[in-house]
């Protein structure tokens, strides 16, 4: 399946310094959502590209009800629909802990957890430098969580009412949570 992450697409545009990157940089830096007209257009353009892959995993999109409605409308015109939405339930304190200890490889974007003790090191996959996302600093994390509970959490009911929601217990280590997601998505529980 193709993996489309709106956050990655925006970060790449900021890195390139192109028109899209210049438009979205300030919103991202504040932990705010990028305006819907920019985000929806970017996703629809990406979805319209021909692909040999069997399906798409959307990561970080939709982030509010207007985006979900636009996605439904666009997919309908292609005779398609969202099949499942994975809701990974995690406590607020665990979210803050994970975001503040997240480090990424600058080259290949693989995420690592680093608690700040000793040296963060380099990427085990490609040897690239590890860095912390500017919006994972504490003040911005607080803002992003506010935005999540105000704008994104209503999507839980939106997809539950449409029988698309798959709920996962997100507490525990990466391996356990991955196993739960794979079982639930593939219909094995
Ligand atoms: P993420 O990597 O998904 O945490 O996204 C990082 C930042 O990119 C967010 O805090 C927003 O500023 C922006 N962003 C990503 N996805 C969306 C979206 N669907 N709608 C609006 N802004 C988004």
Descriptive account of the structure:
The structure is a single chain. With 189 residues, this protein is α/β, with parallel strands linked by helices. It is built from eight helices and seven strands. It has helices at residues 6-16, 19-30, 36-48, 65-77, 92-100, 138-152, 154-161, 174-185; strands spanning 2-5, 56-59, 85-89, 102-105, 111-113, 130-131, 165-169. Strand 4 (102-105) and strand 5 form a beta hairpin. Helix 1 crosses helix 2 and helix 3 (36-48) runs parallel beside helix 4. The longest helix is centred in the C-terminal third of the chain and has 15 residues, at 138-152. It binds adenosine monophosphate. Adenosine monophosphate binds at residues 6-7, 10, 27-28, 31-34, 39, 60-61, 63, 67, 135, 144.
